[in-house]
Amino acid sequence: MNLQPLPIGTSDFSALRSAGQTYVDKTEFVYELASERQPELPEHSSGIFSF
What we know:
Helix content is 31%, strand content 0%. It contains 2 helices and no strands. It has helices at 13-18, 27-36.
């Protein structure tokens, strides 16, 4: 089986298709991942968070 590398970081759909690359729609996966649970934020005494 000949597997092609996925076009990671390509955001221009027409350029992706012109280059013969494969588009993988991950919309449903992202939705499921985001709705599984809310992220746990660390407790901070001052109420200010730094990221």
